[in-house]
Amino acid sequence: MSKSRFVIDKFAKLFEQGLLNYKDLSNEILNILKSKRDEIVFKMKLTSKEETDILNKRLENLEKKVDILEKSHRKKKTKRVKRS
Prior knowledge:
84 residues, mainly alpha
């Protein structure tokens, strides 16, 4: 009950602040969920905060590289050979 109450309280605060834009609301929801995820990870003592930050940065860099590779792969076109 306390966990659901926490989420409801967060939503109530968002509406009180007057966030009318859907994009702002979705960003706030994602931030709330990320913070709860981080709290759970830290409570389980899986990694320290510094290690988690480093891993997150490495993951972001890898995602950027994958996006770049996918874009370059899409741009490549097959060459037609002229028949003689």
